[in-house]
């Protein structure tokens, strides 16, 4: 839906997932390090499955919203009488949601059937993000300058996310890549909101001049402020997660995570196995 | 041949190979897992050789078809009297087939002579796909908008396939990459058919308006529906293969493939060796 | 600041860092080789932290300079009366400095808290360079040809640096990548000076004709002369570092670094572990 | 020199190196395999040094030719009287040769001083090719269509070569990459000749119509015929090398290189170490 809600809805979805990932992956990384890399914490696999379920639900919500809003296509694709396609915008958005739904399905299957090759879930997620990017690329081509620019900035975040997720197919459980994914997803979420606010002014305010080059310049800069904010959010969540773990261990009378040179060394050694897919951490 | 047959022919070739790969590679992967990665199943190498032979045959069929159709160049490249090139379109298509033929030759040689370095077969295939992409890129430059757009969408699938195949040079026997290749090849096949149907309407129907932007938008979306379909096909074939193997083993009274955490673990460990070229599978 | 100082300031920063890196990394590499890769020389980690501090200081200087020059925005972003943005150029430059500051902060944290995953520092640096590149890309779009070309050449160095630094996330302590980073940073520094000199002629001299194509051609060539110079500088610094180490060892009566085939062999073996992140250095 | 000689000269250089590499690397690969990967054949390192020397000589010849042809700049860069640059074309070509010279210098140093990090030679070669590509990209921008297209095709080969050589920094002694480099270099050589023949018709013949689109189409196709030819040449040289080794061993009464499954297996295992830089082969 080319209106505020149509941007706020996916924005919120991405924001939720980004924030959740920025908590989940540090938790996984740190608790594995605590447990001396001994056993893979099984619960995290269940969490992946639940995530997949949420993706499916969100995707369904998105698709239904795009289809059945008052001015939606209501599942009509081609109207016979006036020989034309019906609401292709909504159909394209539906397609985007569809691929995120597929990604969710693969997540669930990966959990249910160990015979599914590892990495397919990341691959499917990466494809979903990539498809979203391609569809955006083509469907903002013939818009006014401001509209086109603000969406093309979104493409930077989208394709950055697609690439880093693609890398995760081969470098699974790489904490750096996972935090990149979390950050990029947060940026996507906040920028969707920004787009909605700039183009549709939900709370009134003056219209943005679509020709004014200084608006373009401001938005370019603003986009990277979102990046800086995302970096800060991820860092804060990482720190909070670390503190929680330390406190819980202190409560259980266990030793703190040692911050010694050895620890550092173990880090480097785990870093050494990044390129050979360090999932045994 | 810029007509329906000229798109249906390569489309069918790609479709056949894509479908075959989406069965073969899961079969290889699963049967290797069953056999505890002990011995490399030799028969699969013979299958590769047969594939190479098929590629050569298909390439020859394609080249002959392009050359000797009634309105073809019949191997004339330059006509002396009117000082011009003869049917360059057909010659370009012939060139595309030629490289797939070369790829087939390398496949056969890799099987016949163990001294041929491994990876050359994948490399040659990747080059063939890349060359096809380049030739398409240049020879749709000066077409009407719809024609150009529908072919440029094809380029996405082509270059995605070229990249993933290039990766296989270094990550041989990586099931994820192999399934990507299968999926992308299926998309190429179906999309060739789509192009033929849209541009040449073999079964009549109204002409597509080449200027109408909504047609462009629909085709963009339709292209990714082909992707979703390909994902589904690959998934279904993977499942069927798995079921066949299980039934056969059950028939032979052998244990089922265990779906325990250990199995999962072995998966992750094999996944861990992806980047170091998992050849022990 | 779109004037000479505004280019000389960042130019000097990059030049300083590039030169420093071209000394530091050979030093680290060679002294580790001398010490038989036994223990990681700890002091180098402290050096990283100090570097981070310097980055922060330089970034602050840059931001304050951009904000509080006489014709700067003085932290005003939007002026109410004439309903327009204030000095967006300066704001964009401030944003660039901001990300380098963030990179410095991450460097310091990586040193202080071993629990910070290794690679985040390189990642943040790479993001900072990438952001600089994106902002440059957008804010020279509507300039005269010469101005645009001379900045677009800078983009080559910027994105080359961003990519090589991104690789360092996975190939930490890879001497080749580190020397690439040093060289590219030197080029950026010198080219910033070149831009300032060409566009603003601090020492007078004739105006450059912005339309003249031969000026474009000369600058293109000149840019790669800077590359050649950077290569030479890095090579010289590497040699000097090597000589210093040899002399110091000679002074301490220790044996010279052997240049035998074994040495060569050890090199190759360490080279062999490049892709698995050579952390034992 | 924008004339036939100016294209034939570099073309011959590239052709010589491509052909030489297509013999040298198979020789190295096969003789190492024969010797059971035991010792690195030392002579090949001396050969690298000689290659470096040849590069330097060729680069010098090229630079002198560009400078001191009758219509060359004779080392004058800026002419005072008519306030303009002198023969920038020749200067740009000189710059290209310069970087190949630098690459040669690094080759020699790598041989002389084992302390030079491995991979720098490949890096420098890759940079030289990349610089050549960038300079070509910029200096054919404002040419007639045919001229621009024929050079832009060259860019495909150039950047493909730059990428594969860059990969060799991390995957040294990877026979596949080395054969890619050989093939791409041969294509560059032959295509330089093609350009010279098409644009300057050294042996007379009719002028090519620069506007005619069919000429563009033919050249695009012709470029990839050069690729096919290069593939054939590399394959033939590989075979000849193999036969020579076999005959020599037969003469010395040594066993043939075994073509058994074990051999195959060893291949795969060596293939397995590709990504961890297989130079111990």
From TrEMBL, chains A, B, C, D:
Keywords: Membrane, Transmembrane, Transmembrane helix. It is a multi-pass membrane protein. Its main location: membrane. One of its GO terms (cellular component) is membrane. Pfam families: DUF716. The chain crosses the membrane at residues 12-31, 52-69, 97-116, 123-140, 152-171, 183-204, 216-240. The keyword Membrane applies. It is found in: Membrane. Belongs to the TMEM45 family. PANTHER family: EPIDIDYMAL MEMBRANE PROTEIN E9-RELATED, TRANSMEMBRANE PROTEIN 45B. This is Transmembrane protein 45B. It comes from Amazona collaria.
